[in-house]
Amino acid sequence: MIYIGLDDTDNLDSRGTGRLAREIAGDLSRDYRVMGVTRHQLLVDPRIPYTSHNSSAAIGLEDAGTVDLVELFERVKTLMLAGFVYGSDPGLCVANEAAARALTEFGKRAQRDVLSQAEARELAEAHNVLLAGLGGSQDGVIGALSAVGLAASGEDGRYLLVGDTRDLSGLQQVSAVLHAGISAVLTLDGQPVDHGLVQSEKLRPARRGGQPVLFVEWQNDYWQPLKLN
Questions:
Q1: Which residues share a beta bridge with 223?
Q2: Can you list the positions of beta strands (E) in the chain?
């Protein structure tokens, strides 16, 4: 996998980072196999400036061994700068699987501590990770690096885009949900769900085991999806 991390691309009146990540994924899908877009929750603390929820986003691409990371970085950078929003402090990070996994602990720390740009940049340099601030204070480098590390862990966040799940609506059979790109439907205690109807509006499966897993609970004669970080 190749991971692209984005953070702090918006202000209160603009599209959110998640939407931008989905739009960029759409552009990249012309030349790469997009495995999904995930949202990752970071620390909410008054010492940290953020727009609404202090979350960052990661785009996962299949790595066929022929991807030029610098070329990919420049392409995404151009797309982000074209939509730069005044008042935002965007950051961009691109890393291959091995480098991304080395960033996981940093991402976990960003969920509980206040971290610095300097630490993010030093870590990126140590692991030859492409990282840049694209405007404003450039604080977005912290969240962008964190998103890459958390996505690479395979055990954090939830999908904003995966397979054809965004095409579903209303109540759907479990089989239809699985066919749309969900790897498994489970109850909170880990029991598999293989029958019944699922409310499919705006599915946000969790990233678990590196796969999109939909957690549900029984409600009003159908399975209600849960949003987990």
A1: 198, 218
A2: 2-7, 34-41, 55-61, 91-96, 130-133, 158-161, 171-173, 184-187, 197-199, 206-208, 211-219, 222-225
Residue reference for tokens 């080395």:
102
pTM, to two decimals: 0.93
68 and 169 fall within a common domain: no
Q: Is 18 helix (H, G, I), strand (E, B) or coil?
A: helix
The whole-angstrom distance between residue 229's C-alpha and the CA centroid of its chain comes to 11
Q: Three-state DSSP class for 169? A: coil
In a 13 Å sphere around the CA of 130, the CA atoms on its Cβ side amount to 22
The count of residues in the chain is 229
Write down which residue in 159, 182, 216 finishes a domain.
Answer: 159
- The rounded distance, in Å, linking the Cα atoms of 139 and 157 is 21
Secondary structure class of 54 (helix, strand, coil): coil
Beta-carbon-side half-sphere exposure of residue 40 (alpha carbons within 13 Å): 39
Quote the CA–CA distance of 100 and 121 in Å, as a whole number.
14
The pLDDT of residue 98 is 95
DSSP label at residue 156:
S
Confidence class of residue 69 from pLDDT cuts 50, 70 and 90? very high
The token pair at 97 is 């699987």
Q: Which among 111, 120, 142, 106 has a CA at the least distance from the CA of 42?
A: 111
Overall number of domains in the chain: 2
Tokens of 22: 């989905």
Q: What is the spatial distance between Cα 56 and Cα 10, in angstroms, rounded to a whole number?
A: 11
Residues 110 and 211 both lie in one domain = no
